[in-house]
Design a protein that fits this description.
Elements: E1 10-16, E2 19-24, E3 28-32, E4 47-53, E5 56-62, H1 63-66, E6 79-84, E7 88-93, E8 95-101, E9 107-108, E10 122-129, E11 132-138, H2 140-147, H3 150-153, H4 163-174, E12 176-184, E13 187-192, E14 196-201, E15 216-222, E16 225-231, H5 232-235, E17 248-254, E18 257-263, E19 265-273, E20 277-279, H6 282-285, E21 293-299, E22 304-309, H7 311-316, H8 318-328, H9 333-344, E23 346-354, E24 357-362, E25 366-371, E26 388-392, E27 395-401, H10 402-405, E28 418-424, E29 427-433, E30 435-443, E31 447-449, H11 455-460, E32 463-467, E33 472-476, H12 485-497
Protein backbone atom coordinates (compact mmCIF):
# COMPACT_ATOMS: atom_id res chain seq x y z
CA UNK A 1 0.00 0.00 0.00
CA UNK A 2 1.45 3.39 -1.00
CA UNK A 3 1.91 5.71 1.98
CA UNK A 4 -0.04 8.94 1.77
CA UNK A 5 -0.41 11.86 4.13
CA UNK A 6 -3.38 11.22 6.41
CA UNK A 7 -5.47 14.19 7.44
CA UNK A 8 -7.21 14.22 10.84
CA UNK A 9 -10.67 13.63 9.38
CA UNK A 10 -9.80 11.07 6.71
CA UNK A 11 -11.68 7.79 7.21
CA UNK A 12 -11.79 4.35 5.62
CA UNK A 13 -15.32 2.98 5.26
CA UNK A 14 -16.32 -0.70 5.26
CA UNK A 15 -19.38 -2.95 5.41
CA UNK A 16 -20.40 -5.45 8.08
CA UNK A 17 -23.76 -7.17 7.68
CA UNK A 18 -24.92 -4.51 5.19
CA UNK A 19 -24.19 -1.63 7.63
CA UNK A 20 -21.55 0.95 6.83
CA UNK A 21 -18.82 1.86 9.34
CA UNK A 22 -15.76 4.09 9.34
CA UNK A 23 -12.48 4.27 11.24
CA UNK A 24 -9.91 7.03 11.22
CA UNK A 25 -7.16 6.42 8.68
CA UNK A 26 -4.35 7.56 11.00
CA UNK A 27 -3.61 4.14 12.58
CA UNK A 28 -4.44 2.15 9.41
CA UNK A 29 -1.26 0.63 7.95
CA UNK A 30 -2.75 -1.20 4.98
CA UNK A 31 -5.73 -3.15 3.66
CA UNK A 32 -5.06 -6.72 2.49
CA UNK A 33 -6.87 -9.78 1.19
CA UNK A 34 -7.53 -12.50 3.76
CA UNK A 35 -4.27 -14.46 4.21
CA UNK A 36 -3.80 -18.05 5.37
CA UNK A 37 -4.60 -18.15 9.09
CA UNK A 38 -3.29 -20.38 11.90
CA UNK A 39 -5.76 -20.92 14.77
CA UNK A 40 -4.76 -20.11 18.36
CA UNK A 41 -6.25 -22.21 21.19
CA UNK A 42 -7.32 -20.51 24.44
CA UNK A 43 -7.83 -17.15 22.71
CA UNK A 44 -10.95 -14.94 22.60
CA UNK A 45 -13.70 -16.26 20.27
CA UNK A 46 -13.34 -13.24 18.01
CA UNK A 47 -9.69 -14.04 17.25
CA UNK A 48 -9.51 -15.96 13.97
CA UNK A 49 -5.81 -16.73 14.47
CA UNK A 50 -2.37 -15.63 13.32
CA UNK A 51 -1.11 -14.81 9.83
CA UNK A 52 2.23 -13.93 8.29
CA UNK A 53 2.60 -10.33 7.15
CA UNK A 54 5.99 -9.94 5.47
CA UNK A 55 7.86 -11.77 8.23
CA UNK A 56 5.76 -10.43 11.12
CA UNK A 57 3.05 -12.33 12.97
CA UNK A 58 -0.34 -10.65 12.57
CA UNK A 59 -3.30 -11.50 14.87
CA UNK A 60 -6.59 -11.29 12.93
CA UNK A 61 -9.89 -10.39 14.64
CA UNK A 62 -13.31 -11.11 13.16
CA UNK A 63 -15.45 -7.99 13.71
CA UNK A 64 -18.62 -10.04 13.09
CA UNK A 65 -17.74 -12.15 16.14
CA UNK A 66 -17.03 -9.00 18.18
CA UNK A 67 -20.52 -7.72 17.31
CA UNK A 68 -22.18 -11.08 18.05
CA UNK A 69 -23.16 -11.73 14.43
CA UNK A 70 -23.20 -14.99 12.51
CA UNK A 71 -20.00 -15.77 10.64
CA UNK A 72 -19.94 -15.10 6.93
CA UNK A 73 -18.06 -17.20 4.40
CA UNK A 74 -14.86 -15.45 3.34
CA UNK A 75 -15.12 -14.44 -0.32
CA UNK A 76 -13.49 -12.17 -2.90
CA UNK A 77 -14.91 -9.08 -1.21
CA UNK A 78 -13.59 -9.90 2.29
CA UNK A 79 -10.68 -7.75 3.48
CA UNK A 80 -8.43 -7.36 6.51
CA UNK A 81 -7.77 -3.82 7.73
CA UNK A 82 -4.33 -3.73 9.39
CA UNK A 83 -4.20 -1.24 12.25
CA UNK A 84 -1.28 -0.27 14.51
CA UNK A 85 -2.31 0.86 17.98
CA UNK A 86 0.87 -0.08 19.83
CA UNK A 87 0.40 -3.67 18.59
CA UNK A 88 -0.37 -4.43 14.96
CA UNK A 89 -3.75 -6.15 14.55
CA UNK A 90 -5.84 -7.16 11.54
CA UNK A 91 -9.64 -6.75 11.49
CA UNK A 92 -11.74 -8.86 9.11
CA UNK A 93 -14.60 -6.96 7.43
CA UNK A 94 -17.13 -7.98 4.78
CA UNK A 95 -16.07 -5.36 2.28
CA UNK A 96 -14.00 -2.17 2.15
CA UNK A 97 -15.90 0.64 0.46
CA UNK A 98 -13.79 3.78 0.12
CA UNK A 99 -11.65 6.42 1.81
CA UNK A 100 -13.53 9.65 2.57
CA UNK A 101 -12.52 13.08 3.75
CA UNK A 102 -15.00 14.40 6.32
CA UNK A 103 -15.73 17.95 7.43
CA UNK A 104 -15.99 18.16 11.24
CA UNK A 105 -19.43 19.76 10.96
CA UNK A 106 -20.83 16.50 9.53
CA UNK A 107 -19.79 14.43 12.60
CA UNK A 108 -22.46 14.03 15.30
CA UNK A 109 -22.80 12.02 18.53
CA UNK A 110 -24.08 8.45 18.28
CA UNK A 111 -26.10 8.14 21.51
CA UNK A 112 -29.47 7.70 19.78
CA UNK A 113 -28.36 5.58 16.85
CA UNK A 114 -29.68 2.01 16.57
CA UNK A 115 -27.21 -0.38 15.00
CA UNK A 116 -25.96 -3.95 15.00
CA UNK A 117 -23.21 -2.81 17.39
CA UNK A 118 -23.35 -1.42 20.92
CA UNK A 119 -23.25 2.36 21.13
CA UNK A 120 -20.17 1.96 23.39
CA UNK A 121 -18.24 0.92 20.28
CA UNK A 122 -19.22 4.07 18.36
CA UNK A 123 -17.47 7.44 18.49
CA UNK A 124 -20.10 9.21 16.43
CA UNK A 125 -21.85 9.29 13.06
CA UNK A 126 -21.23 11.01 9.76
CA UNK A 127 -24.38 12.16 7.92
CA UNK A 128 -24.87 12.67 4.19
CA UNK A 129 -21.35 11.89 3.03
CA UNK A 130 -20.54 10.60 -0.47
CA UNK A 131 -23.29 8.09 -1.35
CA UNK A 132 -24.14 7.30 2.29
CA UNK A 133 -26.92 8.85 4.36
CA UNK A 134 -25.22 7.84 7.59
CA UNK A 135 -21.84 6.27 8.43
CA UNK A 136 -21.06 5.06 11.97
CA UNK A 137 -17.57 5.83 13.27
CA UNK A 138 -16.17 2.79 15.07
CA UNK A 139 -14.08 3.29 18.23
CA UNK A 140 -11.50 0.60 17.49
CA UNK A 141 -9.68 1.21 20.79
CA UNK A 142 -12.89 0.31 22.70
CA UNK A 143 -13.24 -2.87 20.61
CA UNK A 144 -9.71 -3.95 21.54
CA UNK A 145 -10.22 -3.04 25.19
CA UNK A 146 -13.44 -5.11 25.35
CA UNK A 147 -12.03 -8.19 23.58
CA UNK A 148 -8.56 -8.30 25.10
CA UNK A 149 -8.93 -6.68 28.54
CA UNK A 150 -7.52 -9.81 30.25
CA UNK A 151 -4.04 -9.24 28.95
CA UNK A 152 -3.83 -5.76 30.45
CA UNK A 153 -3.47 -7.31 33.92
CA UNK A 154 -2.20 -10.74 32.85
CA UNK A 155 1.46 -11.53 33.24
CA UNK A 156 3.29 -14.82 33.01
CA UNK A 157 4.93 -15.98 36.25
CA UNK A 158 8.55 -16.99 36.12
CA UNK A 159 9.14 -20.68 36.58
CA UNK A 160 11.94 -21.45 38.99
CA UNK A 161 13.62 -24.78 39.65
CA UNK A 162 15.37 -25.17 42.97
CA UNK A 163 18.87 -26.59 43.09
CA UNK A 164 17.43 -29.63 44.92
CA UNK A 165 15.02 -30.33 42.06
CA UNK A 166 17.80 -29.98 39.51
CA UNK A 167 20.16 -32.34 41.31
CA UNK A 168 17.39 -34.95 41.73
CA UNK A 169 16.62 -34.83 38.01
CA UNK A 170 20.33 -35.14 37.15
CA UNK A 171 20.64 -38.24 39.38
CA UNK A 172 17.73 -39.89 37.56
CA UNK A 173 19.15 -39.07 34.14
CA UNK A 174 22.58 -40.59 34.86
CA UNK A 175 21.05 -44.08 34.89
CA UNK A 176 18.91 -43.56 31.79
CA UNK A 177 19.32 -42.96 28.09
CA UNK A 178 16.99 -41.07 25.79
CA UNK A 179 16.54 -42.65 22.36
CA UNK A 180 14.54 -41.91 19.23
CA UNK A 181 13.19 -45.14 17.73
CA UNK A 182 12.25 -45.73 14.09
CA UNK A 183 11.47 -48.56 11.70
CA UNK A 184 13.33 -49.90 8.69
CA UNK A 185 11.78 -52.86 6.85
CA UNK A 186 9.52 -53.63 9.86
CA UNK A 187 12.53 -53.80 12.21
CA UNK A 188 12.91 -51.31 15.06
CA UNK A 189 16.09 -49.29 15.57
CA UNK A 190 17.06 -46.38 17.78
CA UNK A 191 19.68 -43.63 18.06
CA UNK A 192 20.68 -41.56 21.09
CA UNK A 193 18.78 -38.28 20.97
CA UNK A 194 21.95 -36.19 21.51
CA UNK A 195 23.28 -37.46 18.15
CA UNK A 196 20.15 -36.31 16.30
CA UNK A 197 20.25 -32.81 14.90
CA UNK A 198 16.64 -32.89 13.72
CA UNK A 199 14.03 -35.03 11.98
CA UNK A 200 12.47 -33.69 8.77
CA UNK A 201 10.03 -34.80 6.12
CA UNK A 202 11.10 -36.05 2.69
CA UNK A 203 11.57 -33.00 0.42
CA UNK A 204 9.72 -32.67 -2.89
CA UNK A 205 13.00 -33.02 -4.76
CA UNK A 206 16.12 -35.05 -3.95
CA UNK A 207 19.08 -34.34 -6.24
CA UNK A 208 20.64 -37.53 -7.56
CA UNK A 209 24.45 -37.63 -7.58
CA UNK A 210 26.06 -39.55 -10.48
CA UNK A 211 28.61 -42.22 -9.55
CA UNK A 212 27.73 -41.97 -5.84
CA UNK A 213 28.03 -44.84 -3.38
CA UNK A 214 25.29 -47.48 -3.36
CA UNK A 215 23.48 -46.44 -0.18
CA UNK A 216 23.57 -42.69 -1.00
CA UNK A 217 20.26 -41.76 -2.65
CA UNK A 218 21.18 -38.11 -3.28
CA UNK A 219 21.56 -34.71 -1.63
CA UNK A 220 19.09 -32.09 -0.39
CA UNK A 221 19.22 -28.47 0.69
CA UNK A 222 18.62 -28.04 4.41
CA UNK A 223 18.63 -24.37 5.39
CA UNK A 224 21.14 -23.41 2.70
CA UNK A 225 23.47 -26.33 3.48
CA UNK A 226 23.98 -29.44 1.33
CA UNK A 227 23.01 -32.62 3.19
CA UNK A 228 23.91 -36.09 1.81
CA UNK A 229 21.10 -38.63 2.20
CA UNK A 230 21.73 -42.30 2.94
CA UNK A 231 19.06 -45.01 2.75
CA UNK A 232 19.18 -47.33 5.75
CA UNK A 233 17.30 -49.90 3.68
CA UNK A 234 20.16 -49.96 1.18
CA UNK A 235 22.84 -49.76 3.86
CA UNK A 236 21.38 -52.71 5.78
CA UNK A 237 20.68 -54.72 2.61
CA UNK A 238 16.87 -54.62 2.81
CA UNK A 239 14.62 -54.48 -0.31
CA UNK A 240 13.98 -50.95 -1.55
CA UNK A 241 10.52 -49.38 -1.44
CA UNK A 242 9.20 -46.16 -2.96
CA UNK A 243 9.38 -43.17 -0.59
CA UNK A 244 6.05 -42.02 0.88
CA UNK A 245 4.84 -39.31 3.25
CA UNK A 246 5.48 -41.75 6.14
CA UNK A 247 9.24 -41.75 5.49
CA UNK A 248 11.40 -39.41 7.53
CA UNK A 249 14.95 -38.10 7.33
CA UNK A 250 16.85 -38.35 10.62
CA UNK A 251 19.63 -35.76 10.47
CA UNK A 252 22.70 -36.96 12.38
CA UNK A 253 25.63 -34.78 13.36
CA UNK A 254 29.12 -35.54 14.60
CA UNK A 255 31.41 -32.58 15.02
CA UNK A 256 31.06 -30.45 11.89
CA UNK A 257 29.71 -33.33 9.80
CA UNK A 258 26.03 -33.98 9.11
CA UNK A 259 24.24 -36.69 7.17
CA UNK A 260 20.56 -37.54 6.70
CA UNK A 261 19.46 -41.16 7.02
CA UNK A 262 16.16 -42.13 5.42
CA UNK A 263 13.96 -44.36 7.61
CA UNK A 264 10.52 -45.87 6.99
CA UNK A 265 8.85 -44.05 9.89
CA UNK A 266 9.73 -42.50 13.26
CA UNK A 267 8.03 -44.30 16.16
CA UNK A 268 8.69 -42.64 19.52
CA UNK A 269 11.10 -41.10 22.00
CA UNK A 270 12.16 -43.64 24.62
CA UNK A 271 13.68 -43.04 28.03
CA UNK A 272 15.21 -46.36 29.06
CA UNK A 273 17.28 -47.64 31.95
CA UNK A 274 20.88 -48.72 31.38
CA UNK A 275 19.96 -52.04 32.99
CA UNK A 276 17.93 -53.16 29.94
CA UNK A 277 20.66 -52.24 27.41
CA UNK A 278 23.34 -54.80 26.55
CA UNK A 279 26.11 -55.05 23.94
CA UNK A 280 25.52 -56.91 20.69
CA UNK A 281 26.59 -60.58 21.18
CA UNK A 282 30.14 -61.13 19.94
CA UNK A 283 29.02 -64.03 17.76
CA UNK A 284 27.05 -61.54 15.63
CA UNK A 285 29.94 -59.10 15.40
CA UNK A 286 32.43 -61.75 14.22
CA UNK A 287 35.54 -59.74 13.26
CA UNK A 288 33.75 -56.43 12.57
CA UNK A 289 35.04 -53.63 14.81
CA UNK A 290 32.81 -50.88 13.38
CA UNK A 291 29.49 -52.72 13.25
CA UNK A 292 26.62 -50.18 12.95
CA UNK A 293 24.47 -51.93 15.58
CA UNK A 294 26.32 -51.50 18.87
CA UNK A 295 23.73 -52.44 21.50
CA UNK A 296 20.33 -54.05 22.02
CA UNK A 297 17.57 -52.60 24.21
CA UNK A 298 15.20 -55.18 25.73
CA UNK A 299 11.72 -53.71 26.26
CA UNK A 300 8.57 -55.43 27.60
CA UNK A 301 10.63 -58.06 29.40
CA UNK A 302 12.53 -58.90 26.22
CA UNK A 303 9.48 -59.27 23.98
CA UNK A 304 10.38 -56.06 22.12
CA UNK A 305 14.00 -55.72 20.99
CA UNK A 306 15.31 -52.39 19.71
CA UNK A 307 18.69 -52.28 17.95
CA UNK A 308 20.71 -49.21 18.96
CA UNK A 309 22.81 -47.75 16.14
CA UNK A 310 26.26 -46.34 16.88
CA UNK A 311 26.46 -42.99 15.07
CA UNK A 312 30.26 -42.95 15.20
CA UNK A 313 30.37 -46.36 13.50
CA UNK A 314 27.72 -45.28 11.00
CA UNK A 315 29.90 -42.33 10.01
CA UNK A 316 32.77 -44.79 9.41
CA UNK A 317 30.73 -46.77 6.86
CA UNK A 318 32.54 -46.49 3.53
CA UNK A 319 29.50 -45.13 1.64
CA UNK A 320 28.76 -42.36 4.13
CA UNK A 321 32.46 -41.60 4.65
CA UNK A 322 32.96 -41.22 0.90
CA UNK A 323 29.90 -38.96 0.54
CA UNK A 324 31.05 -36.71 3.40
CA UNK A 325 34.61 -36.57 2.07
CA UNK A 326 33.39 -35.45 -1.35
CA UNK A 327 31.36 -32.68 0.24
CA UNK A 328 34.20 -31.62 2.51
CA UNK A 329 36.48 -30.99 -0.45
CA UNK A 330 33.97 -28.40 -1.65
CA UNK A 331 33.87 -26.56 1.65
CA UNK A 332 36.38 -24.11 3.04
CA UNK A 333 37.29 -23.38 6.65
CA UNK A 334 35.23 -20.20 6.58
CA UNK A 335 32.04 -22.11 5.73
CA UNK A 336 32.62 -24.47 8.66
CA UNK A 337 32.98 -21.55 11.05
CA UNK A 338 29.85 -19.96 9.62
CA UNK A 339 27.94 -23.24 10.09
CA UNK A 340 29.02 -23.43 13.75
CA UNK A 341 27.85 -19.87 14.35
CA UNK A 342 24.44 -20.65 12.79
CA UNK A 343 24.01 -23.77 14.93
CA UNK A 344 24.72 -21.78 18.09
CA UNK A 345 21.97 -19.38 17.10
CA UNK A 346 19.25 -22.05 16.82
CA UNK A 347 16.84 -23.78 19.16
CA UNK A 348 15.66 -27.38 18.83
CA UNK A 349 11.98 -28.28 19.04
CA UNK A 350 9.68 -31.27 18.73
CA UNK A 351 6.93 -30.34 16.25
CA UNK A 352 3.51 -31.97 16.50
CA UNK A 353 0.01 -31.46 15.10
CA UNK A 354 -3.42 -30.85 16.60
CA UNK A 355 -6.36 -30.41 14.22
CA UNK A 356 -3.95 -29.84 11.29
CA UNK A 357 -2.23 -26.94 13.13
CA UNK A 358 1.49 -27.13 13.96
CA UNK A 359 2.80 -26.65 17.49
CA UNK A 360 6.24 -27.08 19.05
CA UNK A 361 7.83 -27.65 22.44
CA UNK A 362 11.53 -27.29 23.32
CA UNK A 363 13.12 -30.71 22.93
CA UNK A 364 14.63 -30.61 26.42
CA UNK A 365 11.13 -30.41 27.94
CA UNK A 366 10.05 -33.72 26.36
CA UNK A 367 10.72 -36.64 28.69
CA UNK A 368 9.61 -39.18 26.10
CA UNK A 369 7.07 -39.89 23.36
CA UNK A 370 5.12 -43.15 23.41
CA UNK A 371 2.35 -44.83 21.46
CA UNK A 372 -1.17 -44.86 22.89
CA UNK A 373 -1.94 -48.33 24.29
CA UNK A 374 -4.97 -50.21 22.97
CA UNK A 375 -7.11 -48.99 25.85
CA UNK A 376 -6.53 -46.19 28.32
CA UNK A 377 -7.55 -47.18 31.84
CA UNK A 378 -10.25 -44.85 33.14
CA UNK A 379 -9.86 -44.56 36.90
CA UNK A 380 -12.52 -43.27 39.34
CA UNK A 381 -11.72 -40.22 41.46
CA UNK A 382 -9.32 -38.79 38.90
CA UNK A 383 -9.85 -35.17 37.77
CA UNK A 384 -12.36 -34.57 34.95
CA UNK A 385 -9.66 -33.34 32.60
CA UNK A 386 -7.77 -36.67 32.81
CA UNK A 387 -8.53 -38.96 29.86
CA UNK A 388 -7.15 -42.01 31.67
CA UNK A 389 -3.93 -43.54 32.96
CA UNK A 390 -1.31 -45.88 31.51
CA UNK A 391 1.40 -48.01 33.05
CA UNK A 392 4.74 -46.56 32.03
CA UNK A 393 7.52 -48.87 33.23
CA UNK A 394 5.76 -49.59 36.53
CA UNK A 395 4.59 -46.01 37.14
CA UNK A 396 1.06 -44.71 36.76
CA UNK A 397 1.04 -41.93 34.15
CA UNK A 398 -2.04 -39.67 33.96
CA UNK A 399 -2.92 -38.87 30.35
CA UNK A 400 -4.70 -35.72 29.14
CA UNK A 401 -6.11 -35.15 25.65
CA UNK A 402 -4.49 -31.90 24.48
CA UNK A 403 -7.42 -31.34 22.10
CA UNK A 404 -9.72 -31.25 25.13
CA UNK A 405 -7.29 -28.97 26.94
CA UNK A 406 -7.35 -26.52 24.05
CA UNK A 407 -11.14 -26.80 23.53
CA UNK A 408 -10.67 -28.45 20.12
CA UNK A 409 -13.19 -31.05 18.95
CA UNK A 410 -12.46 -34.64 19.99
CA UNK A 411 -10.78 -36.97 17.49
CA UNK A 412 -11.24 -40.73 17.16
CA UNK A 413 -8.11 -42.59 18.22
CA UNK A 414 -5.82 -43.69 15.37
CA UNK A 415 -2.32 -45.08 14.85
CA UNK A 416 -0.75 -41.66 14.24
CA UNK A 417 -1.57 -40.28 17.68
CA UNK A 418 1.14 -40.20 20.35
CA UNK A 419 1.49 -39.41 24.05
CA UNK A 420 4.10 -36.71 24.77
CA UNK A 421 5.37 -36.95 28.34
CA UNK A 422 6.35 -33.76 30.17
CA UNK A 423 7.52 -33.29 33.76
CA UNK A 424 5.53 -30.40 35.23
CA UNK A 425 6.62 -29.33 38.71
CA UNK A 426 8.05 -32.84 39.38
CA UNK A 427 4.85 -34.56 38.15
CA UNK A 428 5.04 -36.68 34.96
CA UNK A 429 2.02 -36.04 32.74
CA UNK A 430 1.20 -37.41 29.28
CA UNK A 431 -0.61 -35.34 26.65
CA UNK A 432 -2.26 -36.94 23.59
CA UNK A 433 -1.46 -35.20 20.29
CA UNK A 434 -2.66 -36.02 16.75
CA UNK A 435 0.84 -36.82 15.48
CA UNK A 436 4.49 -36.05 16.16
CA UNK A 437 5.98 -34.79 12.90
CA UNK A 438 9.61 -33.86 13.30
CA UNK A 439 12.48 -32.63 15.43
CA UNK A 440 13.36 -29.23 14.03
CA UNK A 441 16.12 -26.71 14.61
CA UNK A 442 14.72 -23.20 14.24
CA UNK A 443 16.88 -20.06 13.94
CA UNK A 444 16.32 -17.69 16.84
CA UNK A 445 15.99 -14.88 14.30
CA UNK A 446 12.54 -16.17 13.20
CA UNK A 447 11.23 -16.79 16.74
CA UNK A 448 9.09 -13.93 18.05
CA UNK A 449 7.21 -13.19 21.22
CA UNK A 450 3.59 -14.30 20.75
CA UNK A 451 0.97 -11.55 20.56
CA UNK A 452 -0.81 -11.37 23.94
CA UNK A 453 -4.43 -12.16 23.14
CA UNK A 454 -5.71 -13.54 26.46
CA UNK A 455 -4.20 -14.22 29.89
CA UNK A 456 -4.24 -18.01 29.47
CA UNK A 457 -3.07 -17.94 25.86
CA UNK A 458 -0.19 -15.59 26.75
CA UNK A 459 1.07 -18.03 29.40
CA UNK A 460 0.82 -21.20 27.31
CA UNK A 461 1.93 -19.82 23.91
CA UNK A 462 4.87 -17.63 24.87
CA UNK A 463 6.52 -17.55 21.44
CA UNK A 464 5.82 -18.21 17.77
CA UNK A 465 8.16 -19.32 14.97
CA UNK A 466 7.41 -17.57 11.68
CA UNK A 467 9.02 -19.67 8.94
CA UNK A 468 8.09 -17.32 6.13
CA UNK A 469 9.97 -19.12 3.32
CA UNK A 470 8.21 -22.39 4.16
CA UNK A 471 4.83 -20.71 4.67
CA UNK A 472 4.62 -22.08 8.23
CA UNK A 473 3.65 -20.46 11.53
CA UNK A 474 4.48 -22.75 14.46
CA UNK A 475 3.14 -21.84 17.89
CA UNK A 476 5.59 -22.67 20.68
CA UNK A 477 4.07 -24.10 23.86
CA UNK A 478 5.42 -23.65 27.37
CA UNK A 479 4.69 -27.14 28.80
CA UNK A 480 4.82 -26.07 32.46
CA UNK A 481 1.83 -23.80 31.85
CA UNK A 482 -0.44 -26.59 30.52
CA UNK A 483 -1.63 -27.31 34.09
CA UNK A 484 -2.14 -24.90 36.97
CA UNK A 485 -1.14 -25.58 40.58
CA UNK A 486 -4.62 -26.74 41.62
CA UNK A 487 -4.78 -29.24 38.77
CA UNK A 488 -1.31 -30.57 39.59
CA UNK A 489 -2.37 -31.09 43.23
CA UNK A 490 -5.41 -33.05 42.02
CA UNK A 491 -3.16 -35.24 39.89
CA UNK A 492 -0.73 -35.89 42.74
CA UNK A 493 -3.65 -36.72 45.05
CA UNK A 494 -5.17 -39.20 42.54
CA UNK A 495 -1.77 -40.88 42.05
CA UNK A 496 -1.38 -41.29 45.82
CA UNK A 497 -4.83 -42.87 46.03
CA UNK A 498 -3.85 -45.31 43.30
Amino acid sequence: MVETEVVANEFVTFLIDREIFAINMAPVQEIIRVPEIVKVPKSPPSLMGLANLRGKVLPIINLRKVFGLEEKTIDESSRVIVIDLGQTLGFLVDNVSSVIDVDETKIETSSEIKSIVKSDFLKGVIKDIAKFKMVMILDIEKVIEKEFSEILQGSSKEYEITSKEQSTEEEILTDERQLVSFTVSDEEYAILIENIQEIVQIPEHITKVPNSEQSIIGIMNLRDKILPLASLRRLFGFPEEQLTEQNRIVVLSMGNLSVGIVVDSVKEVLRVSESIIEPVPSIILKDEKDFEIAEICRLNEGKRLVSIISVSNLFKHKDIKEALNSLETEKGVEEKKENEEILEDEEQFVVFKLDEQEYAVPIESVQEIVRIPEGLTHVPKTPDFVEGVINLRGNVLPVIDLRKRFDIGKKQMDEHQRIMVFVIDNVSVGFIVDSVNEVLKIPKSVIQKSPELSAEQAKIFTRVANLEKQGRIIQIIEPKELLNKEELKELEKSETEE
